[in-house]
Amino acid sequence: MLAVRFMFISPWDLAYVVPVAFIANAIGVNTAYHMYFTHGAFQAKPSFRVVLAVFGTILCQDSLIQWVANHKRHHRHVDVPDRDPHTPWQFGESNWRVYTVGLFWASVGWKYARRSTSKAYYAGSLLKDPVLRFFDKHFVVVSYLGLMVPFAVGYALGGWQTGLKGFAYFGAFRVFVGYAFTELVINGFCHCVGSRKFATKGRATNISSLAMLSMGTTLHHNHHAFPQSLSTAVDGEIDPMQWINGFFAKCGWISNVVHPSAADIAAKKLAETTGPRYDGALGR
Ligand SMILES: [Zn+2]
Ligand SMILES: [Zn+2]
After folding, report:
1. Domain that holds residue 251
2. Is residue 284 part of a domain?
3. How far is the centre of ligand 2, averaged over its atoms, from the C-alpha of 281 (Å)?
4. 217 CA distance to ligand 1 middle (Å)
């Protein structure tokens, strides 16, 4: 009976569960793991650095330094089969390969292929930081706590039923949304569907229609063009992360935010918008 009740979520619950999941994931993936620890798009106060490490680790995607190493490798060898860890172009360029096994590889397959990316080679500077080494080493424990703390809070407030709700809504659902967006949408679709307007290596694309829902992350082509820019909105687009990161900056928790100059943006702009198969600058 209890299981059946959990299959139905009321609109009232959806109204807070979905925004909390999206914002928590956006901070964990986008602000923390991606733009801060990988690309150094801003500086953070030491205490806020720990907060970012927690938000990133409870995504349950990968340990902090391993995630950074994989992503740095992705940028360095973007869309080159066998070098980029998760390109959907891994098995060739025919449409049916890219949109079937390629997307499966980019979202699920690469995770289980046991191809290791060297943390020392790609993220050696992070290995020198004892706090980050701690989070990297205790990835499983911190991830587990990220699932169980919502259960414990719910249990304390209202017993087993509220505890399970806490786990399902703020643990499992949050992790599922983060995984789906990072792996399937960004690693997969944002490298084979959509448009391109800057000269970059690889085939990363913008899916502008999903920019609001994805908190700006589907402007992924913009990110590959300007990897250190904290915001993906570099050419008049909307990036909701600007509002969240702007709040962090106002509070003094982050500073020295990187954004490209108008001249840098103009210099990289293509004469016309293209699709993912524009490969004049494909890095090989
Ligand atoms: Zn990419
Ligand atoms: Zn990146």
Report:
1. 10-274
2. no
3. 18
4. 10
